[in-house]
Amino acid sequence: MLYLSTRGQAAPRDFEGVLLAGLAEDGGLFLPATWPVLSPAEWRALRGLPYPELAARLMQPFIGEALTPATLLGLTEAAYAGFGSPAVAPLVQLDHRSFILELFHGPTLAFKDMAMQLLGRLFDQVLARRGERITIVGATSGDTGSAAIEACRDRDAIDIVILHPEGRTSEVQRRQMTTVLAGNVANLAVRGSFDDCQDLVKAMFNDAPFRQEMRLAAVNSINWARIAAQIPYYAYAALSLGAPDRPVAFSVPTGNFGNVLAAWAVREMGLPVERLIVGSNRNDILARFLAANDMSVKGVEPSLSPSMDIQVSSNFERLLFELLGRDAAATAETMRRFRAEGRMPVPEAAWRRATELFRGVALDDEATLAEIRHLWDRAGYLADPHTAIGTAAARAAAPRDPAIPVVVAATAHPAKFPDAVARATGQRPPLPPRLADLPAREERFSVLPAELDAVEDFVRAHTRRNRG
Ligand SMILES: Cc1ncc(COP(=O)(O)O)c(C=O)c1O
Ligand SMILES: N[C@@H](CCOP(=O)(O)O)C(=O)O
């Protein structure tokens, strides 16, 4: 399997090259040169497989010869062995047509573990064979950071620096990152928004000498391996509900557009996905785009669903590339104008194609609290604010045909956002026993302004300290 950059100027490469590169050198994102498509009979044959086996089978075409099937299966089995549910990603029925796909049973209680537990092992495998070290730089609005740190802590060949927006995550999210005192881990609170953190990470990748000197790698969903590892759970849900012989819809609380892009990918691979519903908070750029082709950046505003306090959704570029007929020059020019003007000029025909499949629904904080309360009162289900945005969006934009089930991606455990959940329901969800002492653990992090030089110096110092 070869991968192409959405901006067309970086050399195509195989999975291992993409895993280690993260962002393409031309600033674009990698996508498979062709999508692996399974026939209905091949899909049916995957029904009922244990999750680790399904994940290995679906990821093998993306990984190609980088790993043998037996090695990949060993990695997926190890990645999901520690999850708190034997199903790994259990599907819970909410009403006659709505289902919740719980993606938060991993070590850091958010859907990021589904990919990150595998990514850490993939990095280890590849780096050991090559005898190389990397420095991971990542941006987080709260969940990617802790999942990446958990997956990479104490690994010999990896140093990791995670940037989070100062004061804009929940306390549980921050402590899950900053209380990991492993020598290879560093946390940076940036005075700015998640978008500033993400810009800084991309700027480090675009600084070629720095990128080479540090041997930078990515754990954000700019790294194709992250998306590849998120595809299996959508297939798992769809197959459980009767696909490929029955269409399904997904509702995905969305920020950086990586999770919903993985749902879109299973459609490219041949499963009948009827609709993709994108849930947003008051940072509603994606909902505005889908309603009126208005992809214009406003300032990031804090909300009760902080992991989605994002305006510039990295992975939208991958969809844009497809909507523009895989025209890399047009994609590069559209992204250049978006950056320069703060507004993305998506051609009318491409926008219409997007609206055939996608719907956008935005909820403010009051509506989010009302939905958490509604789920608790009506179904006895305690949802975190991100998941609640997904369930409300699902009701608002479900396909007209009631025979089509709608699966909501439950992206975080309610205990990560106890204040919002308690405000809505009076219930304060406890952390699992292994995290019960989190509020008392020692924290370690540095604070810096959103300035590239300062952040690069910090990353350099951290890496040099560990490389000796
Ligand atoms: C809990 C939670 N829900 C939803 C999202 C949005 O997912 P994505 O950025 O893949 O769109 C995130 C962050 O990525 C998250 O942490
Ligand atoms: N919500 C995310 C933001 C980063 O998204 P990613 O999928 O690109 O890593 C977070 O929790 O950090």
Automatic annotation (TrEMBL):
Biological pathway: Amino-acid biosynthesis; L-threonine biosynthesis; L-threonine from L-aspartate: step 5/5
GO molecular function per UniProt: pyridoxal phosphate binding; threonine synthase activity
UniProt keyword list: Amino-acid biosynthesis, Lyase, Pyridoxal phosphate, Threonine biosynthesis
E.C. no: 4.2.3.1
Modified residues (N6-(pyridoxal phosphate)lysine): 112
Catalyzed reactions per annotation: O-phospho-L-homoserine + H2O = L-threonine + phosphate
Residue intervals of the Threonine synthase N-terminal domain: 3-80
CC cofactor: pyridoxal 5'-phosphate
Domain Tryptophan synthase beta chain-like PALP: 99-338
InterPro entries: Ser/Thr_deHydtase_PyrdxlP-BS (IPR000634), Thr_synth_N (IPR029144), Thr_synth_N_sf (IPR037158), Thr_synthase-like (IPR004450), Threonine_Synthase (IPR051166), TrpB-like_PALP (IPR001926), TrpB-like_PALP_sf (IPR036052)
Protein known as: Threonine synthase
Protein's organism: Roseicella frigidaeris
UniProt lineage: Bacteria, Pseudomonadati, Pseudomonadota, Alphaproteobacteria, Acetobacterales
